[in-house]
Design goal:
With 758 residues, the chain is of the alpha/beta class. The protein is 35% helix and 19% strand. It is globular, with a radius of gyration of 27 Å.
Length: 758
Amino acid sequence: MTARDALAHSETDPNSDDQAAAGRGMPPPEIPRAVKPRPVPKGARLDHPALYFNHELGWLDFNWRVLHQARDGRFPALERVRFLAITSSNLDEFYQKRVGGLKRQKAAGVMRLSYDGRTPDEQLRLVTRAAHEIQAAISETWNAELRPVLREGGVVISEYDELAAEQRASLDRHFFEHIFPVLTPLAVDPGHPFPFISNLSLSLAVGLRHPERESLYFARIKVPTVQGRWLRVTPSATEHHYVPVEQVIARNASALFRGMEVLGVHPFRVTRNADVDRYEEEAEDLVAMISEELRERRSAPVVGLEIDSRMPPYERQLLLRELGLEPADVVEVEGLLDLADLEEIANLNIPGMRYEPWSPVTPPRLAHEGETEEDQDIFSILRRGDLLVHHPYESFNASVQQLLDEAAADPHVLAIKQTLYRTSANSPIVRSLLRAAELGKQVAVLVEVKARFDEANNIEWAQILENAGVHVTYGLVGLKTHAKVLLIVRHEGGRPRTYCHIGTGNYHAETAHVYTDLGLLTADQVIGGDAIQLFHSLTGHAPDQRYERLVVAPRDMREAFYRLIEREVANQREGGKGRIVAKMNALDDAGIIQRLYAASQAGVQIDLIVRGHTRLRPGLAGYSENIRIISIIGRFLEHDRIYWFANGGDAEVFIGSADWRQRNLDERVEVVTPVQDAALRDRLTAILEMALADNRLAFDLDAEGRYVQRRPEPGEPERAFHSRLMRDALERTGSPQRTLAVGPGGADQVGRRRGQAG
């Protein structure tokens, strides 16, 4: 039986032995639900609010799953710390984007209900309470679980007051030599207004009193973390002994306020709104508008305040008053604030406390195919057939980057066109584009300056490209260009020939090591012709393009997916073989969900692999009893999108940049491509099979919104998705097997200071 046959048959039975075994085993720790969904009334229409989970709470549910991995003792200690840091960073983003957006809606008097029937004000109350719960769990996990585990492994994170006198003296000397000169204490009094507090910066609130007066005074110290948060403790029995820098500053604060009595020093952080209105249709210059938005974001309203739980009422009330916040906006933290900075600790290279490093393999055809040097160029290889690459199992540098490098240097290449949504700081992709332009090729790049949290980087890259003679456009008004497309036009046999890469992930060499993404490299001239049309539409005024093979949003994609789902319904009614499997980052589009409900009601078997949030409630009698949803959280960030439709036995499989989200289908330029080569379709089918069979990293979602992590039965072999894909990559190259550990290393929207999904 082929992989395609196996997916179409053995996996269709939700009660099959594999599926049942995967859901049994040790009772996993409970993952809290912020609020129980409403019961579905009898005869409810498919748009009834009770049929939908809340979008905002779904964000927090995802982060509970990330935190769950930090609590899982099966992972190496430093990888658990990494998961904790990611959870903390994700919570920062949640406040900036989701809480900020809800607050803006509430202030504007918006009464539009969410799909699950809640007002912005109601959602704000729910998510505030839920966010406080997860913050408390983050602190508890660090204080009670991970800090002791690290100490057992020789990594000690101490409180300043726990240190011996000799250690404190050494740190005090470091303070006066290296930290004291750069600090700027800012007093608050009639002559000194309350200072500006930058977003996500760590600050110290200092309570002061003059020895001869009764009045209380307040000052703020910004904690400098440019050189790192953690100061090494010496002398120490272990090489890895650290104390947070803010505690050293706090214990020496009296040196900054001589003549005053320091009553207390307590850390705090503010989070500012990153959800800003933009009116693109009225803008004369899109780049200027985004630059102005970035300036506005620095001083945007504060939407959250984290404080040390021991902060006295006077300082707490002053912060609330000056920042314009309510008591509900305050998150009290037990212990250290900003645990996202534990990423620095997680990166310590200590054998036995991290995973064995993974080196992506070179795709076999790019490593071995061809007997002569002429046959080894990547264009010759692609003319012999399409190539599917899967990162980080297969090398981004040896495939996508190699294609662009060869195109830049090849004298026969006439033009290179590419979309850039996000890229790395020292981008080899951009370097290749610059080289191509310098060699006289026509280079056109669409740089999306509206990519959230990467706007400044993208504007800088765009200016560098423009200065080198590259044709740069900045996206379409009212739409983000999220498509991942590279087009190369090469002169061959007296005429132009196209080569393309259509991918699921960003052209980002760094995230290609931790994000799982797929790419199709092809010399298919129909796809190439579609890509030419796409770039004409992106860089010029050509809204009425027609595409033969590529599926492009917002023009055609929604209706295309509707037709594919409805075809499975028709096939189910005719022969009982309707089947859909889809893998994506998130699922929230009401139109897609309603058609999936209708397909389930018709008997179509549907498996969805959704890493992040989903509005669809699986397993509801009469609505979605034929729909199953799993979420996979592990060593790598699940970022690829695969759409598989049985099509009566002749499966159609698509990959691309779009999730089944309203923003992807209606508000972005997205591209999805069919994969037509039978062997590549079978490979994609096998990937989906391995995901569905996972019993180590996968969480099953039920109709009440509970996620339960799968665990193997005693004696049952572990089927860990990432581990199996690493072994599969080694087998395809003929590389010797090696022991591979599986676990964390990425999560949704890896903290914005570390990278960005998109």
